[in-house]
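From the methods appendix. Each design record in this collection lists the tokenized structure first, followed by the designed amino acid sequence. Records were kept in a plain field format so they could be parsed without special tools. The example shown here is representative of the layout used throughout.

RECORD:
FOLD TOKENS (387 positions):
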């Protein structure tokens, strides 16, 4: 029997929630594993206690600084009281003087990204630059004090080793094919209406809320190029967000992207669906023609696996982590080159043979990623630390 304490206070949106929602059910069904889970507001009420899992509710904390202070001041006593054997810290920051061996999950590429720091300086977002520098210092310190740090890809593990000079393990994140395609309920009526309006156009999908490092602006510029080159054929960029600062989580300002859409007169070409529930995302993947990501910083990129599993051809920026995930199932372009991105999209959309080949390779490639395998490797690591 091994007892794992999972600190999931940071799981409030995006990848953090996806991770907990996939890993926790598998921990709950593993024989000889007991879990104590500390959650925040986003997961409160979603998880029920059982013989194998105890759920603790943390305080209603929204900012990183307050969460970090709470964890360092109060969490050691909570862990001792739980009787856990190993701590799993899921939010990039470690617990100083953990009472049990600690596994740190590090999954934020922004602290090591020169592109991100240059981008926010060019945008004049100096407050975010300071915030990133401070959090980066804590993230670096966290890797040093944790007993073991785990990255979601070999690429990011290598970046962390180069950044800090300490060994970092890699365990790929997973994908649950059955769960992803299980929900057969249709898209909401308003989403169906928006999709119906794109009928007959080349549909290019990008799944992300708005942030800087996903590099929306390069994709928007590529759409303007495609609009001219493909005329009279219509092209539509399908976004699962609104290009509005108030409609996105986090502190990223979407005004620049929205202004670019207006300047390039792409009001019809850029379709802003807004947030789409994860359970019905597969409808979007299966109804589009190509998936494109211009991101300049990533640690894993779940939508690439989702796209491949859906049979959707992938066009990805030429990052080492994208090549690690997609291999030869995708086509790549220089991440800040909208002309090259537009060219790659046209090459795929103009060739049924190439689309079919990419579809088959993607379907096979997506089978490499399994949450069951991820949890198995994580438990093996936890048991080695608890001995």
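DESIGN:
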């Amino acid at each position: 029997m091994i007892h794992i304490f999972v600190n999931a206070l940071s799981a409030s949106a995006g990848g953090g929630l996806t991770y907990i929602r996939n890993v926790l059910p598998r921990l709950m069904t593993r024989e000889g594993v007991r879990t104590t889970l500390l959650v925040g507001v986003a997961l409160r009420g979603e998880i029920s206690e059982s013989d194998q899992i105890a759920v603790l509710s943390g305080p209603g904390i929204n900012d990183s600084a307050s969460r970090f202070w709470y964890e360092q001041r109060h969490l050691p006593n909570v862990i001792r009281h739980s009787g856990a054997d190993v701590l799993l810290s899921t939010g990039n920051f470690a617990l100083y003087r953990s009472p049990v061996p600690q596994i740190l999950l590090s999954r934020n590429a922004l602290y090591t990204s020169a592109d991100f720091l240059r981008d926010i300086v060019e945008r004049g977002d100096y407050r975010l630059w300071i915030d990133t520098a401070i959090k980066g210092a804590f993230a670096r310190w966290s890797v040093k004090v944790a007993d073991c740090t785990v990255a979601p890809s070999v690429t990011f593990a290598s970046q962390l080793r180069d950044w800090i000079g300490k060994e970092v393990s890699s365990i790929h994140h997973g994908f649950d094919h059955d769960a992803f395609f299980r929900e057969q309920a249709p898209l909401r009526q308003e989403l169906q209406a928006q999709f119906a309006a794109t009928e007959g156009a080349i549909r290019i999908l990008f799944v992300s809320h708005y942030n800087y490092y996903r590099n929306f602006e390069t994709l928007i510029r590529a759409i303007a190029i495609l609009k001219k080159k493909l005329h009279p054929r219509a092209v539509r960029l399908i976004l699962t967000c609104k290009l509005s600062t108030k409609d996105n989580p986090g502190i990223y300002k979407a005004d620049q992207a929205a202004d670019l859409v207006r300047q390039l007169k792409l009001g019809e070409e850029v379709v802003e669906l807004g947030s789409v529930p994860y359970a019905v995302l597969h409808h979007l993947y299966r109804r589009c023609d190509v998936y494109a990501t211009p991101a300049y910083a990533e640690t894993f990129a779940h939508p690439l696996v989702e796209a491949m599993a859906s049979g959707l051809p992938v066009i990805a920026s030429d990052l080492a982590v994208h090549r690690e995930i997609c291999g030869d199932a995708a086509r790549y372009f220089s991440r800040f080159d909208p002309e090259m991105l537009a060219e790659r999209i046209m090459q795929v959309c103009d060739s049924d043979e190439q689309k079919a080949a990419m579809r088959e390779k993607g379907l096979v490639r997506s089978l490499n990623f399994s949450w069951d395998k991820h949890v198995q490797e994580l438990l093996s690591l936890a048991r080695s630390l608890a001995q």
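APPENDIX NOTE: The two ends are 12 Å apart (CA to CA).
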